[in-house]
Amino acid sequence: MLFDTHAHLNAPAFASDLDRVLARAQSKAVSQLVVVGYNLASSRRAVALARRYPGRLYAAVGIHPHDAEQADKASVAAIRDLAAAPGVVAIGETGLDYYRDLAPRARQQAAFAAMLDLAEDLDLPVIIHSRAAIADALAAVEERQLKAGGVLHAFAGEASDVERAVAAGLLLSFAGPLTYRRADMLRAAAAIVPAEWLLVETDCPYLPPQPWRGRRNEPAYLPATVETLATVRGMTSAACAALVTANAERLFGGAGRTG
After folding, report:
1. Which fold has domain 2-251?
2. Residue 139: how many CA atoms within 13 Å on its side-chain side?
3. For residue 21, what is the enclosing H or E element?
4. d(CA 80, CA 148)
5. What is the C-alpha to C-alpha distance for residues 189 and 192, in angstroms, rounded to an integer?
6. Angle, to 10 degrees, between the axis of helix 134-142 and the axis of helix 105-122?
7. Which of 25, 140, 231, 242 has the fewest C-beta atoms under 10 angstroms from its C-beta?
8. For residue 227, what are the contacts with CB-CB under 8 A and spacing of at least 6?
9. Shortest CA distance to 225 belongs to which of 153, 150, 147?
10. Which helix (H) or strand (E) holds 180?
11. What is the pLDDT along the chain (259 residues), one digit of tens a residue?
12. Please, how many CA atoms are within 13 Å of residue 224, restricted to the half-sphere of its CB?
């Protein structure tokens, strides 16, 4: 069985065929998924999906750096309330994105700080988006005592970033780009992550693995990333799947979490 630790099944891209998407995922042994919010509306949809598919879909609630200007007191309070709903296993996604800079960096940093405060207060893991901002993202985490830890999702850093991330209590999650032909630097990083700090994800509908580049990503494609990760680390695919699933269940409270 596999655990997709980051899926946007709450996105419009899945509005018309979600049940078929989930059936295809099940056929590939992807049996558990975290549906990740990126603003207040999508976080509400994530919670609704966790209620609709208990024991299979879980929810994360948070405000993405692109939506950082929405992170006023009322929205942060609403995210806090949502975090108490059944099936919510994390705060996020949140973080910093200095690549697209769709929100001013000061607002991104403030929103990220507010989400980290929630994770710390509620003792929930945090799901972190970091693009061209890993130094600042890690510094913000290092300032806090996040007992529940967290994850750098769709990790795109270098081998030199791995040790610092792990020291900060963050697992590293690898998505479709691990399979890309020119991703040698990313595969080098994946090779040295301590085993208990590894996760996999799709980030669907984004970042499809190599065979599906240019198409909508979906959870059924997760085994392709696992196969590449297994090759990089000199493991069988079955052993790699068991490892990353156990890590996901440990981080997110296990398959039995209901709130």
Report:
1. TIM Barrel (3.20.20)
2. 6
3. helix 18-27
4. 16
5. 6
6. 40
7. 242
8. 237, 240
9. 153
10. none
11. 999 999 999 999 999 999 999 999 999 999 999 999 999 999 999 999 999 999 999 999 999 999 999 999 999 999 999 999 999 999 999 999 999 999 999 999 999 999 999 999 999 999 999 999 999 999 999 999 899 999 999 999 899 999 999 999 999 999 999 999 999 999 999 999 999 999 999 999 999 999 999 999 999 999 999 999 999 999 999 999 999 999 999 999 853 344 4
12. 20
* In the chain, where the domains are located: 2-251
Strand 198-200 vs strand 170-174: parallel, antiparallel, or unpaired? parallel
Adjacency order of strands within the sheet including 2-7: 2-7, 30-36, 57-61, 88-97, 126-131, 150-152, 170-174, 198-200
Paired tokens of 10: 């709450």
